[in-house]
């Protein structure tokens, strides 16, 4: 099953998986909010590339018909559908990225940091104060 | 493009697209006009129209089975198809109804919780979220689901972040939700990519007929796994629920009541649609995934999330954890893999939607009058705000599943479905975790009625614009507790529609 | 950027061609790769470049923030109402054949032109809005303190 042919023949899958995992690792492991967004972008870009690669037809050319619409039946065209889908997904990706960055700007204004552990510290402190003020009604649970 | 002579279409033919189009048109209109009062009027009339359209659709599918609508006149499987059957018509109605009832409630609530300059944008984001959820449910095209999913998700992140005026943690909650949600959506897209690679089509009915004709190879199995995990993040299946408590707690109350009742429900519908219609359940791999993974996780969710809910000191956060537990019930119903179980899941989806909407609205009212939803702050409210508190009691009973409320019906069907299969332990587990619900609901009742109110707060009953929508929801939970036929027949035909909708009508 | 004479002169010379190129990409989208998305981004680049070189205030006096917000909404409405128009002509949503029932291919041309125009307007608006949203924020440390 794992002969050289299999490995080389599925090269796009290998590359897509590696790139995707680099991105996902960044999202999970990095503490900096911006770096997480970068990881998220890598992760999404990997998926875009996967889609584009499955649209490729061996020997296929760009799927644009000649203007005079005289289509040569011998010409092989690549599948344009994945490209269209990914155009949509890229737009969604841009929207996600800009929204994430906007949120980070607001977080920085409110929390004065964009490091996840520091934000968590501030939040834990807030929860502790709330519990001191409001927790004792249920028997002092903090 | 049809080659034959064109037959002019009437408005009734366009209902499947109008249900998505009407709220979608409202969103840019609100921005363009830029007036706060007009914004509300436009949003409300658009969502009210959507409710009527959803009712008409439900009536149509009850008579005629399946409605298929071709965007741009391109016939499926090439074109995008909108496909309404008994299953999604009922979900469409749920989303449309709750979206409409929350709007009058939102007026006072957001005046208190969101800066005035953001009000028009709030309604825009709300309408976009509404559009996205309806679109996710209405469409019959796999990639289109992703597009609408992202429309609803992106606007949800914005709506959650709007809670930042009251508590800055709304921002980090929205950010975490964004990261988790995007990973989920991207997983979903990978799944669809694999499906497309495996079947060569994106139309759900077409994929279904391909799989039933050719069986599932490894690519399609991989697609199934990715779609389950991706949607699981959106549904907040137990270990993937991390985004939910903070997002629900810190979002503005109107947003929470809308999201809790609709967003996870729409995601569950998509999950169901893919599990039962696109990948038919006759495939062994799926059975194993459901029985071996989903069922245990759902059972764990029922107990762990309920237990966490018991130890909360914040009413809103307690309800958020209870939502995770209730999603567990729905998943148990799905995992039973029978028509009874599935219709139990759908009834619970519906009932839990209205119950949670009522409860979160009540929380919003308490927040409006006492500044926060901590038990210490809302103590003794039973005497000062009798209408709100009594609604909480009634909706709380429905959350537990006391006879005479909507929650009882759905849990009863779930227990019935479990016994039908001879799975006694599961029936017992459903009852046992309901006992946990008794504890956390009782704690709220105790706080509301048996504690002395805190000092120095403005205390009076809430404005009518908030009370009425909340009571509509509360009475609905009672109504569906007695009028069981309506919900049951709808759910049963929905379950039938899911289980054999595509194979029955898949004519190509 | 007041003293960067070359940058300012070159920018002024470039803005016109950039907008022209955007329109080329827009209208040539019928026959070759291109269309509203690309054209919208290129169009926005012209204004963003202006903003980067001459300052945010100058850019906003040309292209005020409120206008950007309205444009975003307007483009979406142009797109959606093209679809609504086809509904009223008795065809399916976005079935451009409605615009020329006797010769659907011509109808397709008209329809796609209208829709792409909506996309152009929205994408230009969105790109400008993103730029303004981030550029408008006052930095916490002024440039001199760096």
Quick recap:
By secondary structure, chain A is mainly alpha-helical.
Walk me through this protein's architecture.
The complex is a heterotrimer of chains A (142), B (508) and C (146). Chain A is built from 5 helices and no strands. Chain A is an all-alpha fold and 142 residues long. Chain A has a domain at 4-62 and 78-111: Helix Hairpins. Chain A is elongated, with a radius of gyration of 24 Å. With 508 residues, chain B is mostly helical. Chain B has 2 domains: 9-279, no CATH class; 281-502, no CATH class. Chain B has 20 helices and 2 strands. Chain B is globular. Chain C has one domain (5-138). In chain C, 73% of the residues lie in helices and 0% in strands. The mean pLDDT of chain C is 87. Chains in contact: A-B, A-C, B-C. The A-B interface holds A 24, 27, 33, 36, 40, 43-44, 47, 50-51, 54, 81-82, 85, 88-89, 92, 95-96, 99-100, 103-104, 106-107, 110-111, 119, 123, 126, 130-131, 133-138, 141 and B 143, 146-147, 150, 154, 157-158, 161, 164, 168-169, 171-172, 174-175, 178-179, 182-183, 186, 189-190, 193, 196-197, 202, 311, 313-314, 372, 374-377, 379, 443, 447, 451.
Q: Which helices and strands occur, and which strands form pairs?
A:
The complex is a heterotrimer of chains A (142), B (508) and C (146).
Chain A: H1 4-9, H2 11-29, H3 33-54, H4 81-111, H5 116-134
Helix pairs in contact in A: 2-3, 3-4
Chain B: H1 15-33, H2 36-64, E1 67-70, E2 81-84, H3 86-113, H4 119-138, H5 142-161, H6 169-199, H7 204-214, H8 218-235, H9 243-250, H10 253-278, H11 284-310, H12 315-335, H13 339-370, H14 375-378, H15 381-384, H16 386-400, H17 406-420, H18 424-450, H19 464-482, H20 484-505
Antiparallel strand pairs in B: 1-2
Helix pairs in contact in B: 1-2, 1-4, 2-3, 2-4, 3-4, 3-10, 3-13, 3-19, 3-20, 4-5, 4-10, 5-6, 5-10, 6-8, 6-9, 8-10, 9-10, 9-12, 10-13, 10-20, 11-12, 11-18, 12-13, 12-18, 13-16, 13-17, 13-19, 13-20, 16-18, 16-19, 17-18, 17-19
Chain C: H1 5-28, H2 36-54, H3 56-62, H4 65-88, H5 104-135
Shape of chain C: elongated
Can you count the helices of chain B? 20
Tally of DSSP helical segments of chain C: 5
Structural classification of chain B: mainly alpha
Find the structural class of chain C using helix and strand composition: mainly alpha
Q: For the CA atoms, what is the radius of gyration of chain B?
A: 22 Å
Report the span from N to C terminus of chain B: 17 Å
> Which range does the strand content of chain C fall in?
under 5%
- Rg on CA atoms of chain C, Å: 19 Å
Q: Globular, elongated, flat, extended or rod-shaped: what is the shape of chain B? A: globular
The tally of domains of chain B stands at 2
Give me the strand/helix succession of chain B. HHEEHHHHHHHHHHHHHHHHHH
Largest sheet geometry of chain B: 2 strands, antiparallel
**Low-confidence parts of chain C:** none
Helical amount of chain B? over 70%
Q: Could you tell me the mean pLDDT of chain B?
A: 86
């Amino acid at each position: 099953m794992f002969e050289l042919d299999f490995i080389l023949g599925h090269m796009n899958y290998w590359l897509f998986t590696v790139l995707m995992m680099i991105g996902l690792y960044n999202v999970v492991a990095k503490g900096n909010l911006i770096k997480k967004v970068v990881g998220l972008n890598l992760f999404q870009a990997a998926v875009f590339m996967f889609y584009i690669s499955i649209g490729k037809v061996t020997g296929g050319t760009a799927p644009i018909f000649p203007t005079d619409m005289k289509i040569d039946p011998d010409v092989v065209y690549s599948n344009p559908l994945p490209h269209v889908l990914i155009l949509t997904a890229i737009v969604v990706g841009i929207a996600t990225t800009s929204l994430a960055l906007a949120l980070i700007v607001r977080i920085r204004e409110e929390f004065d940091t964009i490091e996840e552990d520091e934000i968590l510290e501030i939040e834990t402190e807030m929860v502790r104060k709330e519990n001191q003020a409001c927790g004792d009604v249920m028997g002092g649970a903090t | 493009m049809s080659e034959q002579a064109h037959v002019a279409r009437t408005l009734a033919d366009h209902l499947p697209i109008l249900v998505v189009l009407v709220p979608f048109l409202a969103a840019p209109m609100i921005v363009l006009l830029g007036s706060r009062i007009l914004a509300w009027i436009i949003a409300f009339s658009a969502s009210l129209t959507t409710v009527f359209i959803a009712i008409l659709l439900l009536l149509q599918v009850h008579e005629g089975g399946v409605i298929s609508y071709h965007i741009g006149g391109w016939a499926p499987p090439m074109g995008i198809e909108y496909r309404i059957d008994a299953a999604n018509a009922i979900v469409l109605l749920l989303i449309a109804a709750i979206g409409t009832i929350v709007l009058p409630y939102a007026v006072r609530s957001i005046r208190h919780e969101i800066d005035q300059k953001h009000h028009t944008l709030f309604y825009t984001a709300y309408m976009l979220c509404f559009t996205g959820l309806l679109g996710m449910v209405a469409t019959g095209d796999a990639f289109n689901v992703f597009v609408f999913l992202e429309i609803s998700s992106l606007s949800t992140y914005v709506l959650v972040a709007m809670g930042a005026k009251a508590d800055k943690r709304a921002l980090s909650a929205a950010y975490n939700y964004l990261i988790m949600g995007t990973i989920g959506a991207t997983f979903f897209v990978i799944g669809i990519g694999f499906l497309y690679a495996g079947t060569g089509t994106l139309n759900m009915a077409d994929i279904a007929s391909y799989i039933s004709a050719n069986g599932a190879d490894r690519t399609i199995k991989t697609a199934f796994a990715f779609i389950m995990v991706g949607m699981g993040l959106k549904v907040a299946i137990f270990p993937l629920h991390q985004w939910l408590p903070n997002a629900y707690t810190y979002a503005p109350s109107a947003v929470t009541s809308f999201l809790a009742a609709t967003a996870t429900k729409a995601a569950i519908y998509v999950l169901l649609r893919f599990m039962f219609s696109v990948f038919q359940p006759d495939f062994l791999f799926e059975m194993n995934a459901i029985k071996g993974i989903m069922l245990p996780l759902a059972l764990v969710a029922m107990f762990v999330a309920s237990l966490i809910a018991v130890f909360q000191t914040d009413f809103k956060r307690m309800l958020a954890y209870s939502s995770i537990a209730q999603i567990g019930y729905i998943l148990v119903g799905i995992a039973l893999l029978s028509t009874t179980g599935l219709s139990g899941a759908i009834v619970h989806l519906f009932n839990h939607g209205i119950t949670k909407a009522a409860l979160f609205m009540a929380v919003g009212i308490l927040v409006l009058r006492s500044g926060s939803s901590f038990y210490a702050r809302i103590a003794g409210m039973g005497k000062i705000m009798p209408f709100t508190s009594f609604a909480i009691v009634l909706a709380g009973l429905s959350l537990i599943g006391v006879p005479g409320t909507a929650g009882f019906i759905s849990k009863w069907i779930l227990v019935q479905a479990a016994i039908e299969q001879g799975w006694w332990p599961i029936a017992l587990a459903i009852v046992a975790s309901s006992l946990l619900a008794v504890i956390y609901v009782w704690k709220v009742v105790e706080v509301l009625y048996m504690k002395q109110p805190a000092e120095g707060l403005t205390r009076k009953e809430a404005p009518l614009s908030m009370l009425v929508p909340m009571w509509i929801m509360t009475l609905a939970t009672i109504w569906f507790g007695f009028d069981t036929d309506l919900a049951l027949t709808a759910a049963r035909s929905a379950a039938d529609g899911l289980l054999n909708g595509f194979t029955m009508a898949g004519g190509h | 950027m007041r003293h960067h004479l070359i940058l300012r002169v070159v920018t002024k010379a470039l803005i016109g061609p950039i907008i022209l190129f955007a329109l080329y990409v827009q209208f040539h989208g019928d026959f070759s790769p291109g269309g509203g998305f690309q054209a919208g981004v290129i169009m926005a680049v012209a204004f963003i470049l202006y903003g980067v070189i001459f300052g945010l205030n100058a850019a906003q006096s040309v292209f005020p923030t409120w206008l950007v917000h309205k444009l975003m909404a307007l483009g979406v409405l142009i797109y959606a109402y093209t679809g609504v128009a086809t509904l009223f002509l008795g065809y399916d949503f976005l079935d451009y054949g409605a615009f020329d029932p006797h010769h659907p291919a011509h109808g397709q041309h008209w329809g796609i032109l209208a829709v792409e125009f909506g996309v152009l307007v929205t994408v230009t608006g969105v790109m400008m809005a993103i730029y303004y949203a981030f550029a408008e924020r006052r930095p916490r440390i002024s440039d001199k303190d760096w």
